[in-house]
Design brief:
heterodimer, A: mainly alpha, ABC transporter involved in vitamin B12 uptake, BtuC, two-stranded antiparallel ribbon, globular, B: alpha/beta, Rossmann fold, 4-stranded antiparallel β-sheet, 10 helices
Chain lengths: 286, 238
């Protein structure tokens, strides 16, 4: 029973972090129509930014508060420099350019932070554990991490569902040309959406850093799993990304316990099953 | 035309790759005027509307709105300058409710007036009021078309570009759309409309142009269309 409870928590924690990373990817793919292979790099840069900012300010949450706006500005600059040129190009060119960005960010990471894994300290006030049962504890930081992820997810869904900007995003997801023809400059909308996606991915990287450290290639794993989330949830769907992330988190957590050699196989099997039953994903439009 | 033009296109040339779709088109719309654009499929009608809306860039030529050149403007800027667009295929947002679709583009017109509000639209389309909470993709074809027209009106345009608004609709729904377009025209909104229903267009529009292979081969009133009936029917394939 304790094992199941811990795995549920681990699965939710992984799933929620994955949601932060994947939500930007699904919006960029769904609205901007860009396959952004470099999305995992923003998660990696978030983790390394956590290393630098925590060393500077002494607290991961200050690093988060400083890092997210910086990531937003960085994302806006990347969109202006590279991504905006890809909107009318085919997917092959998008893949090639964003692959070049991966290499660029990887080289920059190695130059700035080196090739070794770096651990980021958990805040001392969150370094304890809480008792789940008489013989089982769970780290407080992970509870805090999940809470922040849930709050960010609620905030994102509120913005998407309840605000004028959210209406714009949903409308652009189905028909960006019509959004433009109704008087909204899609260049600004696209830049904000891309920058917000980068900020969310970086937030996931910052929050995850004390749990899984910062190391070269950390973004590659996140990128692949995020693409699985996008496929399962449906391209462009935030609700789908949320459900898909939690499903993957739980399947991964339980797979690692019950069929450790095949845990990653289960994730891709889940994707295949969803694609067979619902080709456009759980919440994707036909 | 006695009034100075609201919209004026001069020597408009548009190409899609090697295909020369509009060939030196001159086209004018006066304030409050209703103009139909007729022609067989593939003659450049939709391209003309999309070019006027800024969704297609002309290769050469001039387009003026209220005397100001709008060539090179983004569609969003043209929309804000007072042009509403009802695209072929409706272009509603399926993942927004009827009400969200309507308030989406709500703004005063370029002249500062706000004649078309949500309430005014619900008066014009009572069916949309009944279905205000429904998602865009839950509507019938006729309801979707009402929504598309209503959404364009919410920006209080002085000119409405309407592309095949009645295509694929049942006769009753089609009649509703024609009646509504008549009411809109009666409120002083200029309309350029592409459609295939010649009789309905004759009843609605003051002036008609026929496009053949990207060139205007006829421009005149409904009486002119009748006077040149044989020529018109041959050009339209009727």
């Amino acid at each position: 029973m304790s094992l199941i409870l811990v795995q549920i928590l681990n699965g939710l924690q992984y799933g929620l972090l994955l949601f932060l990373a994947a939500s930007g990817l699904t919006l960029v793919f769904g609205i901007l129509g860009v396959i952004n292979l470099a999305h995992g790099s923003f998660y990696m840069l978030g983790a390394y930014a956590a290393l630098t900012l925590t060393a500077r300010f002494g607290d991961i949450f200050v690093a988060l508060a400083a890092g997210v706006p910086l990531a937003f500005l960085f994302g806006a600059a990347i969109e202006w420099l590279f991504i905006r040129h890809l909107y009318k190009r085919d997917h092959l060119q998008q893949v090639l350019v964003t692959f070049a960005l991966i290499l660029m960010f990887d080289e920059a990471q190695q130059t700035l932070w080196g090739n070794y894994p770096e651990s980021i300290p958990t805040p001392s006030y969150l370094s304890s554990s809480i008792s789940l049962t008489s013989d089982l504890g769970y780290p407080v930081y992970r509870i805090a991490l999940m809470t922040i992820c849930v709050l960010l997810a609620i905030a994102m869904m509120f913005v998407i569902q309840r605000t004028r900007f959210g209406r714009l995003v949903r409308a652009a997801e189905s028909n960006p040309e019509m959004v433009e023809a109704l008087g909204f400059d899609s260049r600004i909308l696209f830049r904000i959406v891309f920058a917000a996606g980068v900020a969310m991915a970086a937030a996931a990287g910052i929050l995850a850093a004390p749990v899984e450290s910062a190391y070269p290639g950390i973004g590659d794993r996140v990128l692949i799993t995020s693409f699985v989330v996008v496929v399962i949830g449906g391209i462009g769907s935030i609700r789908g990304a949320f459900l898909g992330s939690l499903l993957i988190g739980l399947v991964d957590a339980f797979g690692k316990v019950f069929v450790p050699k095949f845990a990653s196989v289960l994730i891709y099997a889940l994707m295949a099953i969803v694609l067979v039953l619902r080709p456009s994903g759980l919440f994707g439009r036909q | 035309m006695n009034k100075p033009p609201l919209l004026e296109a001069l020597g408009l040339n548009v190409c899609y790759g090697a295909s020369h779709v509009l060939r030196g088109v001159d086209f004018r719309v006066a304030p409050g005027e209703t103009v139909s654009v007729l022609g067989r499929n593939g003659m450049g009608k939709t391209t003309l509307l999309r070019t006027l809306m800024g969704l297609v860039a002309p290769k050469s030529g001039e387009i003026r709105l209220g005397g100001v050149s709008i060539v090179g403007w983004r569609a969003s800027a043209i929309a804000r300058a007072g042009v509403g667009f009802v695209p072929e295929g409706r272009g509603i947002f399926p993942n927004l409710t009827v009400e969200e679709n309507l308030v989406f583009a709500a703004r005063p017109g370029a002249n500062g007036r706000r004649d078309w509000t949500r309430e005014a639209l619900f008066d014009l389309f009572p069916r949309l009021a009944e279905r205000r909470g429904a998602w865009g993709d839950q509507l019938s074809g006729g309801e979707q078309q009402m929504l598309t027209i209503g959404r364009a009106l919410m920006s209080n345009p002085s000119l409405l570009l309407v592309d095949e608004a009645t295509e694929g609709l049942a006769p009753l729904a089609r009649d509703d759309i024609w009646r509504t377009l008549g009411l809109i025209a009666g409120r002083g909104v200029a309309i350029v409309i592409v459609d295939k229903n010649l009789d309905d267009l004759k009843a609605l529009c003051r002036r008609h142009v026929i496009l053949v292979k990207g060139q205007i081969v006829f421009e005149g009133t409904a009486d002119g269309l009748v006077a040149q009936d044989e020529f018109v029917r041959s050009q339209l394939g009727l």
